[in-house]
Each structure stands twice: as C-alpha cells, then as structure tokens.
Amino acid sequence: MIVFDKIKLENSVLIEEADSLKNAGFISKEQLDFIKKELPGLNSHKNILVRIGFFLLGSFLYSSICSAVSLLGISGLDHYWEIFPFIFGIIGVFGSEFLAQKDYHNHGLDDAFVLGTILSFGCAIAIVADFNEVLPVSIIVAIISFIMFLRYIHLVSALIFYLAFTGTLGYSIFEYLEAGQAILPFFMMFYAASTYFSCRKLIAGLTESYYYNGILLIKSISLILFYLSGNYLIVRELSASLTAGYYEISPEIPFAFFFWAFTFIVPVLYLVYSLQNKDRIMLWISFLAIAFSFYSFRFYHSVLPIEVALTLGGLIMFAVTFFFIRKLKTKESGLTFKPDRISNSNTFLNTEALIIASTFGIKPEVKPSESPMEFGGGGFSGGGSEGSF
C-alpha cells in the first residue's frame, strides 16, 4: 500500500530521531552528518516556511496543469463540464504518484497534489449531487483521505479523514434516527472515547513507526472531540441551530446539570491524568479546555465585568504558576520545571538510532580524561579485542 521505499522511509524516521538527539546534546553535528550520509532518506523539509513556499509552488503547478487540460477539452466537452473535477482528481493522483516515486515526502510539492486530489473528488461529488447532499461528499472525502494517508503517510490527510468520518457519523445519526438530535452528544462522547482507546492500543502495538504521528494526531483530536461533545455551550447552541425555528436566545436543554458538570469535570480529569502519565499533548488540551469552560460559563452568566474578570483571572494564573515553579524548580526527575532536552516525546520510540551509532562505530563525543581504561585493545588489565593481556 505504501508507495515509498520502506528502507528510505525508515531511514527518514531514524534521521529525524537522530536530529532530536543532536538538538538535545546527546550526539554531535559530525555524528549527525555521518548518520545522514550513511542512511539515505526521503526528500523532505522540516522548515515550515520552506514547506509552505513549495506548497504554493505545487498549487500553482497543479492548477496550471488543470487549466491546460480544461482549455484543451472544453470544446469537446462543452455540455459535460461536470466531468472536469474528476479529471482534476485523476491528475492529482498521477502527480502524487510521480512525486512519491521521486522520494518527495512532506516536502510541500507533494502536499499540493495530495490535498488537491481530495478537494477535487470532494467537489466532483458535490457537483454530481447538485450541492444538496452532504453525506456522499463526506463519505468520499473520508475514503480518499484515508487512502492518501495510508499510501503517502500524509499527516494532514489523517486529520481530514477523521473529521470527514466524524461528520459522516454525526450527520447520519441526526438525519436517519428519530431521536438523533437527543442522542447525538452521547454518541459523539462514546465515539471519541472509543477512538482514543483504539489509538492507544494501536500505538502500543505499532510495528511501523512512520504511522505513529498520524495515529497520535487522531488520538489528540479525539480528546478535543470528547470534551466538545459534552460542553454545555456547544450542546446548547448546536441544538438551537439544528432546530427548525430560529431562536435569538437558545432555549435550555435537557440534562443541563449533567452537561455543566461535564464541562468543568472533564478538563480537570485531563489535567490530572496528563500529569500522572506525563502526557504533554493532553496537558495542553486540558489548559485549553479549562479556559473554554470558563468562557462557556461566562457566555450565559456574567458575574463580573469583563475587565475585572480578566484581571482576577490573570492574578490567579500568576499565583498558581509562581507556586508550582517554586515547588518544581529543584526537582530533577518526574514532574519538574527543568527544561526538556528532547521536546519530541517520540524520539526514543525506536532505539535503532542508538544501534546505528554502535553499528557504524560512531565514537562518543567526549571521553572522560580521568578514566585509566583504554577501550578497544588489550593493553590494560585483561583480555581485550586483540586477545592480549
């Protein structure tokens, strides 16, 4: 299914991990250059600005090819112009395959053709459905994006797949079940929780590490979806917007106490769990969820003027931050305020980078001068690699 050479793909993963080790100070620049020289990888760009530039260039190239095809075929297909989006999608597939064969991965040019393919087929189905059907479009987008993720290891395609698949399920529940509107929040909670635990299981048994980032992204989005599915503000306003009549002020919803409790309890659970398990992504999500919970409460109950509320909130945040900094700044392990030498939590998912160092004979950067032992020979107190004493 994967179009790339798996050896080069695995080498790219190892080079990325070695780069993280170099940034953390575990290996030197010379060692990193040696690893890159010995392990040929794919043609990628880590600099987001460079990647955006190549994406714009790829978009211009893709649109130019589509425009040329349109000009050549518009005379013969004057009454069948609906076929052009399908042709554009096929062009995107061929372009993605060509760039993949040239080892372009996360480069920018390939992003333009992969995303253009998804957009073209989505627009094609929307035109065929006369822009009246949402379900066929979301289904096709979910299928195409899922194939793009599996074949090209494209991270944005994984995000599009999960959003489109979620939209497909939500729309189906709402449209085709009699009590769809009533059970939609609870269904989405169950769906998000199932996604989270499924992704955890997949990551635990993952053998192909290049799928890790995509699964991790879906796992993180499922946390956000779970919280938003039970957030009082989201549930109440979405219910009002889906009702046939228009409401200037949204009406109260059933089980309001449950959704209010959910709004404030779930972010705290996220926070506690992330600290216990050292899950940085969940920690950031918990902070955002806590902030949105207070916004949800203030949206309906303005207890204090906005300037007073912001001032008090800032003072409380400063006091809490100062307290934890004082408590954690001297700790060396566990939850600590010390800077993280490796910001990428996936750096040690594979130990191959360390094995490569020993396989190719990369020597340590610093050798303790006070050590009397000379490794590699047999010149000290025992038999060494040369067999002498």
TrEMBL record:
Region: Disordered, residue numbers: 368-389
Keywords: Membrane, Transmembrane, Transmembrane helix
Extent of the signal sequence: none
Compositionally biased region (Gly residues): 375-389
Coiled-coil residues: none
Residue ranges crossing the lipid bilayer per the database entry: 52-74, 80-100, 112-129, 135-152, 159-177, 183-199, 211-235, 255-274, 281-300, 306-325
Protein name per UniProt: DUF2157 domain-containing protein
Organism from which the protein derives: Flavobacterium hydrophilum
